[in-house]
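Hi R.,

Here's the input for the 2-OXO-4-methylpentanoic acid complex you asked about:
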Amino acid sequence: MEKKNIDWANLDFSYKKTDYRFVANYKDGAWDEGELTTDAMVVMSECAGVLQYAQTVFEGLKAYTTEDGKIVIFRPDLNAKRMAESAERLQIPVYPEDKFIEAVEKVVKANAAYVPPYGSGASLYLRPYSFGIDPVIGVKPANEYQFRVFATPVGPYFKGGIKPLTIRICDFDRAAPRGTGHIKAGLNYAMSLYAIVDAHEKGFDENMYLDAATRTKVEETGGANFLFVTKDGTVVTPKSDSILPSITRRSLIYVAEHYLGLKVEHREVYKEELKDFAECGLCGTAAVISPVGKIVDHGEEICLPSGMNDMGPVCKKLYQTLLDIQHGKIEAPEGWIRVIE
Ligand code: PLP
Ligand code: COI
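And here is the predicted structure with 2-OXO-4-methylpentanoic acid in place:
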């Protein structure tokens, strides 16, 4: 299979149309078989549930080319499960988890020419999503839904690749206690747009959200979980019911413990502790690990000892080990890597 003529090494994180996407429809209480299509447009009623009341959930995962030339996807079972949990919370009928994985595999296979080659630093980002498509005017769930998966080749989420970021503690909240912060609903991202545009305008790369109830604890950013490293080398990740359970974070914790022999704590992290950490990173499918060099709390600067030039040593080891697992350079834990045949 011949690869597309793309400047893989200089890809950014933006949408580029690929050849095939998967579409399944839910009608009269059941999902149809679904199929691949070359049509990238979605046609729907002006009153569709997704347009009026944001009834939509999504996922994000990546396909990679391994060192020996295979195309693989990383832990799609966890995306399928999280999407099911997100869908349930928004009254969207669950697209079956095994069919979800099948659909992702079909899309990767059909777009194999867009999977970046090994060593390019890029990957094929997959975006499964599901939304209410029939007209809804009273506030209630739609009756008909679409499940779709598209693919787009991507490079680093943050411009500058792994240059440390400057973030600010945000005065807006991302998620309420007992709200929807723990699921991947479009609405969580819509309401973060004002805060991220404001952060960018003021020279910050991202927002650090605090817990909405007490504003004393660290939650996450708009699109990634936090990972901290203490001065004695312990990896610490914030725990909260309103944080999205990042698959990358869960994988990194495993890597830290079982591959690197590091001590790991998944616990509440107080804002007051930030000044004591040695390293900070944002972790997620898109972010992988993006280092944070500076956290600004209303004018007060917390400068991480890892500095503004490079990723800290522990984050670097975690980053490299995860990438090596994803690219087949070191053996993955059972079930983490799915080869696309
Ligand atoms: N937190 C938020 C709010 C996200 O949107 C994402 C992205 O998916 C993550 C964390 C990271 O999750 P994952 O590692 O599963 O991609
Ligand atoms: C991902 O990391 O897959 C996400 O969905 C984050 C998104 C904000 C790009």
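One thing worth noting: The two ends are 13 Å apart (CA to CA).

Cheers,
M.
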